[in-house]
């Protein structure tokens, strides 16, 4: 499969990867950016995508093999967020080691001044993330501190608190990834807090 990278080559390219939590983080990023009116595009490999002149694009998908390499190697990403590698693997992989190797190769290909953001609670993501790469910034995250409520969680973010209604027990981990990646494009804790009040 060949990706038409001409559509995204002039944008800052941010890839959200793993086998768990990708869709949730992707959608939560979109929710926050829509709320704060920050222009960004959202690109799913293999889908019909509508793109604008936004300077940033968030990408998911493309971890399937095409020959010896995962499709996502065509993307030349600047920032990689790796949330969790577990459970069912994409088509073409015989072992989890082969899948992890593709993400390690992707991290190794990050450009100078690139960023690798990883979930420190995931052993595989941490294994890749702890490796030193020249001029690449490694940022780890773990579940945001929260208080469980009858309808979800209460978070203290920045100088404020917000209650979020959700039945997803993993939401604090997703939100931590969202916070880490959005900081890289200038979104503050106050803006995230404001968005979550309408979640």
TrEMBL record:
Gene3D superfamilies: Mur-like, catalytic domain
Database matches in InterPro entries: Mur-like_cat_sf
Molecular function terms, GO-annotated: ATP binding
Top-level taxon of origin: Bacteria
This protein's name: Uncharacterized protein
């Amino acid at each position: 499969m060949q990706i038409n990278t001409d559509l995204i080559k002039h944008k800052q390219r941010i890839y959200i990867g793993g086998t768990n939590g990708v869709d949730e983080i992707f959608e939560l990023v979109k929710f926050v950016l829509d709320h704060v009116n920050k222009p960004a595009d959202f690109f799913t490999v293999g889908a019909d995508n509508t793109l604008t002149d936004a300077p940033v694009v968030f990408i998911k998908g493309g971890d399937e093999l095409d020959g010896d390499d995962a499709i996502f190697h065509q993307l030349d990403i600047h920032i990689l967020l790796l949330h969790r590698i577990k459970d069912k693997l994409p088509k073409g992989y015989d072992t989890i080691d082969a899948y992890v190797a593709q993400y390690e190769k992707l991290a190794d290909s990050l450009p100078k001044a690139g960023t690798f953001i990883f979930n420190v609670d995931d052993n595989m993501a941490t294994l890749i993330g702890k490796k030193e790469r020249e001029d690449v910034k490694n940022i780890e995250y773990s579940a945001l501190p929260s208080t469980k409520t009858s309808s979800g969680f209460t978070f203290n973010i920045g100088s404020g608190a917000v209650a979020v209604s959700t039945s997803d027990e993993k939401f604090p981990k997703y939100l931590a990834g969202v916070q880490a990646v959005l900081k890289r494009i200038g979104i503050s804790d106050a803006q995230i807090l404001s968005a979550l009040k309408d979640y």
